[in-house]
Design a protein that fits this description.
Hypothetical Protein Ta0175, Chain: A, domain 2, binds alpha-D-glucopyranose, 39% helix, four-stranded antiparallel beta sheet, Rossmann fold, 2 domains, seven-stranded mixed beta sheet, 9 helices, alpha/beta, binds magnesium ion
């Protein structure tokens, strides 16, 4: 059993089934001691909102934390994001121009200020409107020369991100920082903003049993041997997947 990097989404992936989380924590603590483990949380939440969750749930201390859908990376409890990653995202990112385009789309409802961040603009969007609106918004942004990424999650959240600022690219950047190969990396998630974790490279993936329709549909069309669809929900699905890939016994 060798050292590996576990990168996991939080809401409805790591967190959501308390007894299963406690069982997974036990296993991960043993793995940390016996074979070595790099633990990374990757969430859509802001740092403040992550801290709220952490005060409510029994979560192990991670080696790094990725917040705001891949756009901020923190190490060892620091509250200053990795400046090199921020610098990468800054290239070509024009937040104000994005907002001036989205203002023309009345069905986009801006999320609370606390969830907006320098490299992420977030809205609520009704699922019944998304299929029609998203391609139109994409065109409007690209006509203005704004190279951005639209990420729709959980049938309600729309994030507009810099082109290179999703969870998958943050994971690859971190692999480089930690010097870990794709084979030694396993990513876990349940919703649209986790898709990039499964499609950016050859990292192993675990989709938990309670995954959202948008991620299940993506998996149906793009699944590979590297991606395991678990039966169990949340942390139970992570443990099932880690066993499937023989990362743990
Ligand atoms: C989290 C964030 C929200 C984002 C969503 C999907 O809920 O708080 O801003 O839109 O994840 O990525
Ligand atoms: Mg989630």
């Amino acid at each position: 059993m060798t050292k590996f990097l576990l990168i996991t989404d939080l809401d409805n992936t790591l967190v959501g089934d308390r007894p299963a989380l406690e069982q997974l924590n036990q296993t991960l603590m043993q793995v940390r001691q016996a074979q070595g483990l790099l633990l990374v949380y990757s969430t859509g939440r802001s740092l403040t909102s992550f801290n709220q969750l952490r005060s409510q749930e029994p979560m192990l201390v991670p080696d790094a934390l990725v917040t705001s859908v891949g756009t901020e990376i923190y190490y060892g409890g620091s509250t200053t994001p990795d400046p090199d990653w921020s610098e990468k995202l800054n290239q070509g990112w024009q937040r104000e121009d994005v907002l001036s385009i989205t203002a023309h789309f009345n069905d986009l409802v801006l999320q609370p200020e606390a969830e907006q961040s320098p490299y992420k603009v977030s809205f609520f969007l009704e699922p019944s409107l998304a299929t029609d609106l998203l391609p139109r918004l994409d065109v409007a942004l690209h006509i203005r020369g704004l190279d951005v990424k639209l990420v729709y999650s959980g049938g309600k959240d729309l994030d507009i991100l810099p082109l290179h600022g999703d969870k998958g690219q943050a994971m690859q950047y971190l692999r480089g920082q930690f010097g870990v190969t794709a084979e030694q990396t396993v990513a876990c998630g349940d919703s649209g903003n986790d898709q990039a974790l499964f499609s950016t490279g050859q990292e192993r993936g675990i989709i938990v049993g309670n995954a959202c329709p948008e991620l299940l549909q993506w998996h149906q069309e793009n699944g590979s041997d590297y991606i395991y669809l678990a039966t169990a929900n949340c942390a139970g699905g992570i443990l099932e997947g880690l066993r499937h890939f023989s990362y743990v016994k």
